[in-house]
Amino acid sequence: MEALTALNVTKRYTNHLALDQISLQIPEKTIFGLLGPNGAGKTTLIRIINQIINADSGEIRIFGEQLQEKHIGTIGYLPEERGLYKKLKVGEQLIYFAQLKGLSRKDAVEKSKAWMRKFEITDWWNKKVEDLSKGMAQKVQFISTVMHEPKLIILDEPFSGFDPVNAQLITEEILELKEKGCTIIFSTHRMETVEDLCDHIVMINKSKKVLEGSKKQVKDAYKTNTFSVEHKGSFTLTADRYELLQQKPLDDSFFQSTIQIKGTQTPNQLIRDLTELTEVHSFVEKIPTMSEIFIATVKGGSDE
Predict the structure, then answer these.
(1) Pair 179, 49 in one domain
(2) How many domains does the chain have?
(3) CA-CA distance, 96 to 300, in Å (whole number)?
(4) Within a 10 A sphere around the Cβ of 133, how many other Cβ atoms?
(5) Sheet of 2-13, strands arranged across
(6) What is the pLDDT of residues 237-285, one digit of tens each?
(7) What is the DSSP string of 43-106?
């Protein structure tokens, strides 16, 4: 079953088209990357899913059902603009948010304290949010997002404000939530995080969907049949079969070359040809990174 399906979702603000016929499918129990430059339409889609605003047309389905008010409790949402009450104490705040999601006060207290023990922050219970650092407040916000055990979790730039240690802590929690059966929609500009966490991605640019698929499918689509070779001694290649994009010396007569295959030649054929010309020590296909794919697709960003 799909955790979420969007069908031809469109949203316009006065003279600005924020989403233009967006359709996508998010497989259940996966981490799904929602990518795009600033102003592309990602936040508008997230707000529609959370029923903060309504689409002008189109349909959202949650676990096979048309999106309804009852699904608010099914979703955990960590917005990019954090929403904690600065004057409230941490414990009071977590209990309040949990009760808004349908938990009894008794369950809200138990789950809040359990998560604070897990994050080793029990001494923050009676601290006001305004007394916390940005990273500390982020932890509290993350707990408020997930402690009611939502089936669908939406994280908008969840690592903002975290140092590397706490970013790793949250990464581990996200992976654990996935293992427990949660589906996670993950919106970020940090492409290295997409590389590490996401199973599937969709990219929105200028209100339109421009890319969708599993991470492997997307990377395969952007491969250029280019290989990095470390070898002993320089060489030249047959120009009608291969293009030698770069050849640079390393040390002790070793070189690193970047080679693109032309036409119908295969990697095996390239290896055979190379072994007749040089002593090959390493042969690796150059797979594009998500950052390279992002830049190539967006071409400098949105103009919205």
Answers:
(1) yes
(2) 2
(3) 42
(4) 10
(5) 16-27, 2-13, 57-62, 65-66
(6) 888 899 999 999 998 889 999 999 998 889 999 999 999 999 999 999 9
(7) HHHHHHHTTSS--SEEEEEETTEE--GGGGGGEEEE-SS----TTSBHHHHHHHHHHHTT--HH
Of residues 303 and 166, more confidently modeled:
166
Q: Which residues pair with 62 in a beta bridge?
A: 4, 65
| Residue 100 lies inside a defined structural domain of this protein | no
Residue 140, Cβ density class (10 Å: 0-12 exposed, 13-18 middle, ≥19 buried): buried
Do 178 and 263 lie in one domain? The reply is no
Q: How far apart are CA 255 and CA 235, in angstroms?
A: 10
Which long-range contacts does 216-220 make (Cβ < 8 Å, 24+ apart)?
218/290, 218/293, 219/287, 219/288, 219/290, 219/293
Instruction: Give the span between the Cα atoms of 112 and 201, in whole angstroms.
Output: 32
Residue 155 domain-assigned? yes
Range of the structural domain that residue 266 is part of = 224-286
Phi, psi (deg, nearest 5) at residue 171: -60, -45
pLDDT of residue 302: 43
Q: Within 10 A of 81 (CB to CB), how many other CB atoms are there? A: 7
Q: What is the mean pLDDT of residues 185-192?
A: 88
Q: How many Cβ atoms sit within 10 Å of the Cβ of residue 259? A: 23
In a domain, 41, yes or no: yes
Report yes or no on 261 lying in a domain.
yes
Residue with token string 């060489």: 235
Tokens of 168: 């790793």
